[in-house]
Amino acid sequence: MESALEKLSTIMEKVERNTSPKSSFYILVSKKNAKIRTQFNPLIELDASKKYEMCLLNLETYFSFPNISATNNHFRYTPNADRRLAETRDHEWFDVFIPEGCYEITDINDYLQRIMKENGHYDTVNEQPNVSIEPNSNTLKSVLTIAPLYVVDFRSDNSIRTVLGFNSGTYSDGYNESEQIVNIMNVTSLRVTSDIIGASYTNGSTANMIYSFFPNVGPGYKIIEVPTNLVYLPVTLSTISSMETKLTDQNGKLVNLRGEELSIRFHIREV
């Protein structure tokens, strides 16, 4: 049976452990890429007899990742189509390729109008566009309004239809509402991962995600993310020679930062 002296000694040891200074330090990683491989020289040596944990303190970059790229930037139309020929492609088509970037539907429409005016495909008499794209804020779909004799072709693999919510096919004069809701935001969540922490769970699968968020600023603005509540996860290594940090979307795909700098600061502390 434990004596009173032994009990007191145990309590004093616990007090000493809880009140003695615990080691901690910061790690800053930075690169113009969503994947950062950091080599440490000298190596980071942690006390193998102790436990350590890490959290994300802050992240900085720019909201530069595009929703329009070479995979979904193609808009094709013809200005003098017979409806019977629309399915056979037996007439002249004009191809518009929207530059990579961050767009709202109104931005896509503005770019399309400018190119069609340059091509001479604009109703100058009535000052009306022959093809226009507008959002329907009630249905969350997009509306394609097409003048007579014009046909829009959404059949190409890299068609912008995937953003606007339309099916693969051709659309003729009149009011055309997309079959699905728009998919203007292809990134709905940003996730930070690190290969030196213990596994966390994402949709039931293990992952080394340390933080998840979505920017509270619009495209083109600087993202400064500072967690309100710090969440620490266990560090799995006692000797850290390198560390890989990634910024991914909700599907685990690296975010295209388009050359913008990504800086992340971590805090490692003794438990």
Element layout with pairings:
Blueprint: H1 4-19, E1 24-31, E2 35-45, E3 52-62, E4 74-78, H2 83-86, E5 94-97, H3 105-118, E6 122-123, E7 128-129, E8 131-136, E9 141-146, E10 151-153, H4 161-164, E11 170-171, E12 174-177, E13 190-194, E14 200-202, E15 205-207, E16 209-213, E17 222-225, E18 233-234, E19 239-248, E20 262-270
Antiparallel strand pairs: 1-20, 2-19, 3-17, 3-18, 3-20, 4-5, 4-10, 6-7, 8-9, 9-12, 10-11, 13-16, 13-19, 14-15
What this model shows, in words?
The protein is 14% helix and 39% strand. By secondary structure, it is mostly beta strands. It folds into two domains: 23-65 and 187-270, Jelly Rolls, CATH 2.60.120; 74-177, no CATH class. Strands 1, 3, 17, 18 and 20 form a five-stranded antiparallel beta sheet that branches. A hairpin with a 4-residue loop joins strand 8 and strand 9. The radius of gyration is 28 Å and the shape is elongated.
